[in-house]
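Q: I'm building a small set of examples for a reading group on sequence design. Run inverse folding on the following structure and report the sequence directly after it, with nothing in between.
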């Protein structure tokens, strides 16, 4: 195999190709042997306490090879002065029947991650004060989520992507809004998933895709007619690990 020196070329080679259908990738295993997060650990009060005084826990790297390659790409970008920081907001909606996670469906015409399910967020701008500010600004721009409706309670470990970004998943408790104003260019829809569904590993699937660079592993968490996978599922797995620890 020839060596690939261009980080953007490398990212293209290990990222999913255009038209990639993650749902068609075979399920390697389901994580139903792992413990659920107890319901009393999924309340707003319990989650705030967990972030205020986190136990010892080990973040999960879904695909070690991809992680190492992503770290190398980010390092190369940093040496040439390219901005690599980004943030997403994991919005935990305060509902009467328990917390839900607010997710977005990206529009089909986007160059990156078209049609995929993601958290609101994006690249850090020069005017942003920190990762929290980025997550709040992007959420307001993408879905009209008002800052005053969000209580930031902490963040998860950085998630590295082969597109060259170090992403900070920011976690916030959110008062639901009557409506969300979507950026029509980037966001096709917003929807909610009960937190208890996402914190039950019986709903976590490991899929393995055979690419030109060998086997690639990713998580998926299908919910009704939505297919949550990739980085979004990977970040949810780390929320799961923190809350079950």
């Amino acid at each position: 195999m020839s060596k690939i020196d261009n980080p953007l070329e490398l990212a293209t080679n290990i990222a999913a190709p255009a038209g990639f259908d993650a749902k068609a990738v075979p399920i390697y295993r389901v994580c139903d042997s792992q413990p659920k997060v107890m319901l009393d650990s999924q309340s707003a009060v319990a989650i705030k306490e967990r972030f205020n005084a986190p136990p010892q826990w080990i973040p999960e790297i879904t695909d070690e090879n991809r992680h190492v390659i992503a770290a190398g790409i980010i390092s190369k970008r940093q040496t040439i002065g390219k901005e690599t920081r980004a943030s997403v907001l994991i919005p935990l909606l305060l509902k009467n029947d328990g917390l839900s996670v607010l997710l977005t469906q990206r529009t089909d015409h986007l160059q990156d991650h078209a049609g995929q399910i993601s958290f609101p967020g994006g690249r850090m701008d020069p005017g942003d004060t920190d990762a929290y500010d980025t997550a709040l600004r992007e959420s307001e721009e993408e879905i009209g989520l008002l800052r005053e409706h969000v209580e930031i309670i902490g963040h998860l470990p950085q998630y590295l992507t082969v597109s060259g970004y170090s992403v900070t998943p920011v976690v916030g408790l959110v008062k639901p809004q009557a409506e969300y104003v979507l950026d029509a260019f980037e966001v096709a829809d917003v929807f909610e998933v009960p937190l208890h569904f996402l914190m039950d590993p019986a709903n976590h699937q490991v899929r393995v895709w055979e690419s030109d660079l060998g086997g690639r592993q990713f998580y998926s968490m299908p919910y009704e007619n939505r297919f949550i996978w990739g980085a979004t599922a990977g970040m949810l797995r780390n929320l799961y690990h923190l809350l079950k620890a």
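Residues 1-13 have pLDDT under 50 and may be disordered.
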